[in-house]
Amino acid sequence: QVQLVESGGGLVQAGGSLRLSCAASGRTFSSYAMAWFRQTPGKEREFVAWINWDGSRTNYADSEKGRFTISRDNAKSTVFLQLNSLKSDDTAVYYCAGRRYPYGSDWAREYTYWGQGTQVTVSS
């Protein structure tokens, strides 16, 4: 079993930056692909980015390319999401997710483990 705990969310002005962290428990973290999704009230959970098991490959939603960066530190069982040039549309609860497979997917249903989420609010 893997437990995920996100941190780093908060209130930031448009154009600012935040760094989200997701700490994982369990010895199998390094073999899993990890991802970030986000959700706003009344909407489906939306894909943001994934990273494969060893960090050699990543993928981003089109709206995040060039602004967000996903990374991981397997020695610390942590995955990160660097958010730059934030816009008001980025306001959401951001969720960390773990897939029981080395390679990532854009689909939320492919992920087994989920954190509780961290709120990111961007003021304009």
Number of helices: 0
The helix fraction, in percent, is under 10%
Main sheet properties: 7 strands, mixed
Q: What is the end-to-end distance?
A: 40 Å
Question: Average pLDDT across residues?
Answer: 96
How would you classify the helix and strand content by structural class?
mainly beta
Unreliable spans:
none
User: What is the string of helix and strand elements?
Assistant: EEEEEEEEEEE
Written description of the protein model:
The protein is mainly beta and 124 residues long. It contains no helices and eleven strands. It has strands at 4-7, 10-13, 18-24, 33-39, 46-51, 58-60, 68-73, 78-83, 92-99, 113-114, 118-123. Strands 2, 4, 5, 6, 9, 10 and 11 form a seven-stranded mixed β-sheet that branches. A hairpin with a 4-residue loop joins strand 7 and strand 8 (78-83). The model has no long low-confidence stretch (mean pLDDT 96).
Question: Could you provide a short overview of the structure?
Answer:
The protein is mainly β and 124 residues long. The chain contains no helices and 11 strands.
Describe the protein's topology.
Blueprint: E1 4-7, E2 10-13, E3 18-24, E4 33-39, E5 46-51, E6 58-60, E7 68-73, E8 78-83, E9 92-99, E10 113-114, E11 118-123
Parallel strand pairs: 2-11
Antiparallel strand pairs: 1-3, 3-8, 4-5, 4-9, 5-6, 7-8, 9-10, 9-11
